[in-house]
Design goal:
Oligomer: single chain
Distance between the termini: 54 Å
Order of helices and strands: HEHEHEHEEEHEEEEHHEEHHE
Largest sheet: 6 strands, mixed
Strand content: 15-25%
Radius of gyration: 21 Å
């Protein structure tokens, strides 16, 4: 009888680890700290998301009873595809407007659960040091995904380079450009390619994580930088819909909002990444 009981306990422990959560007899989730075997596999962009998760793993996760496994991606598609397929338990690389657009276009059911930080979008150039010097008929590279394209066009509009149709905001496309006094040409590219395109264009609007990864310093090198006040583009933790209350997800969400994580973000990124309030 003892052998059977021990085997049953071992099998149950393996099952709970694979599921990434711990369930009581009634089916309700227990806090992650109650199970040292709670495992969560998280997909993330290397910078800053992977670095933030590494800080959590090295400094906070073990004490909270969380076994955190980080898988890094260099694109904005596979982390959501693999999360939807169940290969990941969560991901951390995107803002809610991007997620909403992805769910709508791909038919996925993923939910944004915890805001963590903002990476201000910026306009960068290897040829210019002042946005006012952007020449007529300049070529400006922009992200080619719908949400970040609209965000990029709004950044240009907010700084007087173009005007947009009234009320379109960050949903703007090139068709919504109503004024382009410098006759700028827009070159849509996949977001990870934008830093490498700087040598081939006059300027590029680059997402904060890719700017940092490329060695750019948003706070000092961006010609113009996105404002943080009222900004909806906070990056956060995302899971499959229905798993928002899983013990491991709840635990990681709390750790990502821990004051120690906010201090880490502030000291490491010096304004290039801003903790969510």
């Amino acid at each position: 009888m003892k052998i059977r009981a021990l085997a049953g306990v071992a099998a149950l422990s393996l099952l709970l680890a694979a599921c990434g959560t711990s369930q009581s007899a009634t089916g309700s989730a227990k806090p992650a700290a109650e199970s040292a075997d709670t495992v969560l596999k998280v997909g993330a962009s290397p910078v800053p998301h992977g670095e933030i998760l590494a800080f959590v793993k090295d400094n906070l996760a073990k004490q909270a009873g969380l076994n955190l496994e980080v898988v890094e991606f260099t694109d904005y598609v596979q982390p959501n595809v693999q999360l939807d397929e169940g290969q990941l338990g969560a991901n951390f690389f995107q803002h809610k407007p991007y997620l909403d657009d992805f769910n709508k276009s791909k038919g996925t059911k993923l939910s944004f659960v915890t805001p963590v930080h903002l990476e201000p979008l910026g306009l960068y150039s290897k040829k210019l040091t002042d946005v006012a010097a952007l020449p007529d008929e300049a070529t400006v590279a922009v992200p080619n995904d719908a949400t970040n394209l609209g965000r990029a066009l709004k950044l240009l509009a907010d700084n007087g380079l173009i005007t947009l149709k009234d009320g379109v905001g960050t949903a703007a496309t090139e068709r919504d450009v109503t004024g382009n006094p410098k006759k700028l040409t827009f070159k849509p590219l996949e977001a990870p390619l934008l830093p490498r395109a700087l040598g081939d264009v006059d300027a590029a609007v680059i997402n904060g994580n890719y700017a940092i990864e490329a060695g750019l310093k948003p706070a000092s090198q961006a010609l113009v930088l996105e404002k943080t006040e009222g900004n909806p583009y906070v990056n956060g933790l995302v899971v499959q819909t229905g798993h928002e209350k899983d013990a491991a997800v709840v635990t990681l969400g709390k750790l990502l909002q821990d004051p120690k994580v906010k201090d880490f973000i502030k000291s490491k990124y010096a304004g290039a990444v801003i903790p969510a309030e």
